[in-house]
Amino acid sequence: MPDTLTTWGGWEPAIRDDPFGHFAEARARCPVQRMRLADGHPAWVVLGHDAARQALSDPRISKDMLAALEDNGDVVAEGLPGPEFSRHMLNVDPPDHTRLRRLVSRAFVPARVAALEPAVRDIANGLLDDLEEAGSGATVDLVHGYAHPLPFRVIGELLGIPPADRPDLHAWFQVLLTGWAGAPPAEAVEASGKIVSYLRELVDTKRRSPAEDLVSVLLAVGEDVLTTQEVLSSLFQLVVAGHDTTASLISNGVVALLDHPGQMQALLGDLGQLPAAIDELIRFTAPVPHATFRVTAEPATIGGVGIPAHEQVLVCLSSANRDPGRFPAPDTLDIGRNNASHLGFGHGPHYCLGAPLARLEARVAFETLLGRHPNLRLAVDRDVLAWAHGDGLVLRGLVSLPVILGPRPAPGE
Ligand code: HEM
User: Fold this and answer.
1) Sign of dihedral through CA atoms 82, 87, 88, 91?
2) What is the pLDDT of residue 70?
């Protein structure tokens, strides 16, 4: 029988760069559909807001893809960097999820996150100092010079990665997160190998000489509570989840504000609106367009559609965040709107643990950038901007963002 499933992912550049119309068309057809992924496997794609909330909190829909793999060899292929690094909270269900999340969440309690603000501000100012050395009329790349290094340095601080090691580690992660179709290319395998050796060595060092950082805190709970595999996996997951996402929020957000000068002016008039504006920028620009893959452990009905057991489920957060049934005029950027129910940080037990830190980093990043450079502008035509990340499913970030910062306002201006 011919395969009649619509393909989801592996989009041509025009859709990858601006996927929202494509998502809206699919959502209008049906909020939950069986489609075919670019890798050839089928998956149920959840597009409506109510259905997405339901899918993300339904205990019959599991995050343990490895267990599913054992049950049904057709579901997923094990990716890089391999099983030693995949036993983290985002890949397991309760009770393991509860245990792993509780241990790591010690680093994200409000007081600890708030205490990071001066360090984040120093990092933001330091990066802008470096960019300004090129001169106020020069073209600088905001992705490589600001949006990316800022959260990478913060997660490096949190985890206790020595500053001298961060540039290499960051470069290897960049290669690994670029994405690819089919078998991983040689450079990704090489980068993965370097990350694996580095993180193993870091854990050995912290075991020998513990400090105040999160890795030391996790090791201190003991192997009987948290295995070395779980520490390594958590470490890997925190680096991935903790930098590329926030980097995309910062650079996607700058583009969205430059695309909407009225909203930019409103924000510049009162940077105190930033906390609400940041959530609107997450809703609107989709730094994480889809949640990570799930699988039905048992048959489940989502959005009125029956999904059999052992099927992949992919929740399109970005489509849910532009569901007109939930957000009036969803394709309008409105920094003053009530967007409390957006799903950009997910929903349910796997709701983003780093959300308070991401919000803090983004607020400080925008406050510092717009405070110092309110006349920032694109240095290239808008349609030259390209969004990357292989299949474009879980991460949506710019390849580069060439801008002219413009002069700094005189004090008091
Ligand atoms: C704008 C920035 C960010 C966005 C949009 C974002 C988005 C998300 C989303 C959608 C999920 C749920 C995935 C799923 O259910 O499949 C998630 C989970 C997670 N995020 Fe974030 N994230 C961001 C920043 C961060 C940061 C800065 C950290 C940590 C330093 C972090 C750590 C985590 C962790 C640990 C989880 C797994 C939670 C669990 O499984 O219980 N995230 N994030």
Assistant:
1) positive
2) 65
Quote the CA–CA distance of 84 and 286 in Å, as a whole number. Answer: 30
From the CA of 4, how far away is ligand 1's center (Å)?
A: 34
Residue 382 per-residue DSSP state: G
Could you give the CA distance from residue 14 to residue 244 in angstroms, rounded to a whole number?
A: 22
Tokens of 100: 């792993």
| The two three-digit tokens of residue 312, written as one number | 């992949």
81 in ligand 1 pocket by Cβ < 6 Å? no
Is this model's pTM higher than 0.90 or not? yes
Neighbours of 161 (CB within 10 A): 22
- Token duo for residue 356: 């308070």
Show the low-confidence residues of the chain (pLDDT under 50): 75
Half-sphere exposure for 240 (CA within 13 Å, toward CB): 24
**Binding site membership of 55 for ligand 1 (Cβ less than 6 Å):** no
Residue of the nearest CA to atom 20 in ligand 1?
352
What pLDDT shows up at residue 34? 97
